[in-house]
From TrEMBL:
Belongs to the pirin family. It comes from Streptomyces coeruleoprunus. Pfam families: Pirin, Pirin_C. Coiled coil: none annotated. Residues 193-292 form the Pirin C-terminal domain. Residues 41-141 form the Pirin N-terminal domain. This is Pirin family protein. InterPro entries: Pirin, Pirin_C_dom, Pirin_N_dom, RmlC-like_jellyroll, RmlC_Cupin_sf.
Length: 321
């Protein structure tokens, strides 16, 4: 998914200077952003209070939206570099096309994982016809320096491993949890899991104390480490945890995101992740000239133009403001 803000603000993420080394309970509120004509998202990362959780650098939550009489998601071709995109649905379908020739319909609890590497472009749209409701999350994973120029590629994994306990089903999106490992390709120590909790369920998930974690609430009423977390909000948990207590007041859906704190500082602007202002500016120019990022074939519409760069150079500002 693209960041469609026409006034795209730069964000420098990464670096371990502001990692919380002990358990915390920091509730992050979303910023509402319009994507196209019919899709509004709740942006949790980057946030005014926190820019990254491990290598997770961007989190949008959308829906559930009734799109029965609407076109649904319509995101034109746009570029990415230096990151992986993770498409995750609870309801509906998304048709993915990219410049490597991939064409794939992604359905609920299937992993659509696109590694941009040095450069890729893609589009996302609701199929025609499409399901009535659309509900999901779009996330980015920053690539470390030694892997950020890998060849672009796309993966689709319809079957993912699960961890179960009374009232809980955890589906592994990326990384490992409690002995289960996702088939998705990763480049840093990371974990992403979809948690389905039944009404009245209580559970304690095992965690890695060297990772920092956050929990995104997709639906339902849930207490995470005794903190109420409502749909569209995210609780940052810090590091140093060996387990995570969960309690569901209703049927609920969560996403657990975590990873080893990301060591490098990153410049993230629009849909591009780099290390310097010049690198971002060169990539923007290449996209506007139609070079480097390839062509998305089959999308009925024009590519998305890049916004103007800010007047001053993009400078590091750390993991938090």
């Amino acid at each position: 998914m693209s960041n469609l803000d026409r006034q795209a603000a730069p964000a420098v993420c990464g670096g371990r200077g502001f990692v919380v080394a002990e358990p915390v309970r920091e509730l992050l509120s979303p910023r509402r952003v319009q994507l196209g004509e019919s899709t509004e998202v709740r942006r949790l990362l980057p946030n005014l209070g926190r820019r990254m959780v491990g290598a997770w650098a961007f989190v949008d939550h959308y829906g559930p939206d009734d799109i029965a009489e609407e076109p649904g998601m319509q995101v034109p071709p746009h570029p990415h570099m230096g990151l992986q995109t993770v498409s995750w649905l609870h309801e509906g379908e998304v048709l993915h096309r990219d410049s490597t020739g991939s064409l794939q319909t992604i359905r609920p609890r299937e992993l659509g994982l696109m590694t941009s590497g040095r450069a890729i472009s893609h589009s996302e749209e609701s199929p025609r016809p499409h399901a009535r409701y659309l509900h999901g999350a779009q996330l980015w994973v920053a690539l470390p320096g030694e892997h950020r120029h890998v060849d672009p590629h796309f993966e689709h994994h319809a079957a993912l491993p699960q961890v179960t306990a009374p009232g809980l089903t955890a589906t592994l999106i990326l990384g490992s949890l409690d002995g289960a490992t996702s088939p998705g390709t990763t480049y840093t120590p990371i974990v992403g899991a979809d948690l389905a909790l039944a009404r009245g369920a209580t559970a304690r998930l095992p965690l890695d104390p060297d990772f920092e974690y956050a929990v995104l609430c997709m639906s339902g009423e849930t207490h995470v480490d005794d903190v109420p977390v409502l749909p569209g909000s995210m609780l940052y948990l810090g590091c140093g945890r060996t387990e995570l207590p969960l309690r569901a007041e209703s049927d609920a859906g969560l996403m657990l995101l975590g990873g080893e704190p990301f060591a490098e500082e990153l410049v993230m602007w629009w849909n591009l992740i780099g290390r310097t202002h010049d690198e971002i500016a060169e990539a923007r120019e290449a996209w506007m000239k139609g070079t480097r990022f390839g062509e998305v074939k089959g999308y009925d519409g024009a590519p998305l133009p890049a916004p103007e760069l800010p007047p001053g150079p993009l400078k590091p500002r750390g993991r938090v403001r």
